[in-house]
Amino acid sequence: MDPVVARMVLVQVAGALVHRRGKQVHRRWWVHPILRTRNQRGEYHALVQELRLDALLFHQYFRMPPDYFDELLGKVGPLITMADTRFRSAIGPAERLAICLRYLATGDSFHTIGFSYRVGTSSVCRIVREVASAIWTALVEEEMSVPKRADWSTMAEQFEWRWNFPNCIGAIDGKHVVIQAPGNSGSLYYNYKGTFSLVLLAVVDADYLFRVVDVGGYGRTSDSGSLRNSAFGEALRDGTLDLPPARVISGAEQRGPLPHVFVGDEAFPLMTHLLRPFPGQHHTQEKRVFNYRLSRARLVVECAFGILASRWRMYRRVIGTSPEVAEVCVRATCVLHNFLERKKLQGRRRGVEPNIEPSTDPEALRDAPRMGSNNASRLTIQMREAYCAFFNEEGAVPWQPRA
Length: 403
Fold this sequence. Notes:
- By secondary structure, this protein is an alpha/beta fold.
- The protein folds into 2 domains: 109 residues, no CATH class; 241 residues, no CATH class.
- The chain has 15 helices and 5 strands.
- The protein has a 5-stranded mixed sheet, sandwiched between helices.
């Protein structure tokens, strides 16, 4: 094509685009007629009010009973209350909380929830983001405050009492939260499972409560890399977590003081305060017992993730929001998990013996670990050997010989 003609065509196309962009888009309605009936026919004003008459159905709908919903509203309400304007009435805090919880509990699209509650799709998106952020802000200090030395010591006592693992201060693991592929992200969020995800790295105590969470790691990053890049991992390396000092285990004084440790799977490195299983498949009976005892304590984090995904069904779908909104929602579900689990703990009778009888299938002992690639120092290897010897001698429990 002649250069002059080509230039004229480009000018005409550019002029047409400018003309189209300059036109104002006239909305057909300021508020759609269907949305105007929200206070009469919207799901919150109709169905939810009927569900309050049946606590079981209300729990199935919001994943919590009515009194917990009201208590949560009392904590979050001041942060999510909006003022009315001259043109429209604001959506009330209770309805905003209901919309957010319904999204977390189902993972339905914003369009679906908008139709049900008779709220615009963009409003649902904004409400979910703002309310989830407010839930985290309102509950984090009370439900997930940074543990102090006394808190770590209490967690160690609980692990020893419930899971027969002394000096254990938490189980650590990562969970991939599946999201839709973010625009222009390349392979940053693409994980080894063939999906796009954010990484939720969590430390869980003996009661299945999240004590530390780090959300937002790229899906392509391994658990070890997520730990290394997180603030928790940095504090663990720098020794600024305010952990209790090494302690002599009762009955094993000859082994000297042993450090308090987190327990993780083979994806994590062996560190002074982080134990992982012996790698490989073929081990002596002593190493198999150690791997099983460690895996038994580590299962609390797997169970916590299972409870989280079972209660908040958004984890069972592909989260169709931006990574930033998905991160806010994940944080909100974690702190809500603690809020609800603490209620269960408070209602549990005191003095009930823990269930310490595990599965004694020898195949479970042999297949627990997989080969890892993390290297460790000689001191950390010796520390793991000391724990291994303890579990096979002074710390042995009656069911081990049957393994």
